[in-house]
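Handoff note, outgoing to incoming analyst
You'll be picking up this chain. Sequence as last confirmed:
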Amino acid sequence: MRRLLPVFVLLMLLVGAILPTTIALAQAKLSTTNTKARHLFEKAQEQAKERDFTKALETLSILNDKFPSQGEPFLLKGSLLKAMGENQAAFEAYRAGLAILPPSATRYADYYTLGELAMTFGDYKTASTGYKNYVKMAPKGQRNVSRAQRQLKNCEFALKAIANPVGMSPERLGEPLNTFRYQYFPALTADNRFLLYTIQDAGDENLFVAKRNDDGSFGQPVSISPLINTQYKEGASTISGDGKTLVFTSCDRPGSVGSCDLYISRRTGNNWSKPQNLGRNVNSPEWDSQPTLSADGRTLYYTSTRRGGQGQEDIYVTTLQPDDKWSVARNLGEPVNTPGKDMAPFIHASGTTLYYVTDGLVGMGGLDVYRCEMQAPGRWSEPRNLGYPLNTFENEASLFITSDNRRGFCSRSRATEPGVKQERDRPVELFGFEVPAEVRARETSTYTQGRVFDATTKKPLRADVQLYDLQTDELVQYVTSDSESGDYTVVLNEGRQYAMYAVADKYLMKSLSFDYTDKRRFDPLTLDIYLEPVRAGRSIVLNNLFFDTNQYDLKPKSRTELNRLIQFMRQYKDIEVEISGHTDDVGADSDNMVLSQNRAKAVYNYLVANEVKASRLRFKGYGETKPLQPNDSDTHRQQNRRIEFRIL
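Most recent structure output, in case you need it:
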């Protein structure tokens, strides 16, 4: 999404960057006394001074063929080729010339150039030799010494990484994907049904979506919406786990805050809303792009070049507040952000693992992908390089890993076509890979999805669906079901126990429980939810109240459910309710009656202790007299052991 300089400007900058070397070589002399060799070299030097690089190269090629033991002609040839953007040939010429010539401090700049060129082609051994000679021979105070020392560390890391690969190389995705010359920034919904990515065609950027077929392949990609794709460029996008919230980058739109801003759109039914600028709490007068949303669409990470950061590009985070406004963006700080370029963040659906690319850490030499884990809110672990072959000598771009940690997607620019020399001219394509264990997010995720209905009319309902971690009483996800279809999707993490609530105005809340502490059961769920109107005689089962066997003391993880009941009673101030206790048929009838009575009373006492008027509450134990299911299995008995909440 960053605006590129015109090609001719880049070429002129490149020529200017090597001009001192070219002039120095144009003044160099051959070590041989052969008159013909000297004549050819002087002729090439003169042609180079006159900026007739083509003729100079022709002369130097003749000289190389007839006098291959002379190193200086190779260096002059390399400098001219580099000026013309012929980096592969320039690398070969520098390598040949410096292999012939004895070590000399007068050629310290050539050693550095060799190292830089070797890095661009992944020849880490040659690069290491070039950088070592440069560091050894460069005059004191040379500005590139620190970079060369850093590149030496990258060479050492890269050679070890290549010798110890992590997983298999990503493979190019087949048709109907990759049908444009440029496609990048892949992202999927939590159920992996929809693939969102950016395409560039005829200089314009747009967002496309491909739906997964029953056989696992992707269908024909289509434009996401005419409201999203416009005459302006739209790219670098992200989508929430339920596929209902879209954030994307667009540049130079009327009313924008900076050069490139982030915009948001929400889907109702099959229609996307008109995009809205995320405003000055999120966007800056600079460049803001490359967003990634948490599964519930309420936390947003992105890249920005705004002032006050730690490097050239930094990663920032903002959250959606209860008033539906985004918080002032915060720099993630160390150890995520570095003095280098920190870009293209991706937050896994679990919300606990962040991936991003940076050149500010030791790696393969360019932009590498790293992962770090959330240790506490706002605190991240030290980033870890994903290793080879996900990282290579090329600059890596965006990465996406599915919620189940099985499949990864990325975009890559690779020199697959003859004659395509510059990286900016190469096609950018989508790749896929099986995620090795070392690369996976810390927590694997699954999901529950379905529809929310009015229990009486059976019509779809717009409802808030909230997910709480029962161990911490923390709200970890908050989504809204579709007002037209009732659809919802919530992401669940392995190893957690959750309470989920579906809530709508003038309806009883629905209490659901998910226990994924047993890793053997972790498959996606389809679960439709029916909400009862707030009306006399209607009741719900409270599925997140917990007692030890034959005990009536509420366990600490019951507090989430109890606090939701308090909220309900405060919202509907005129209703009165009965809290009823029920058991299975295990044990004596009289014992079960007492136990059910005491458990109902425990809930009653908690509510009264938290300022719910006792006059609005009743409690009663029914023992085993009102089973929901026959007491013929452990599952059915568990359903019969319950607390109900009934409106009087």
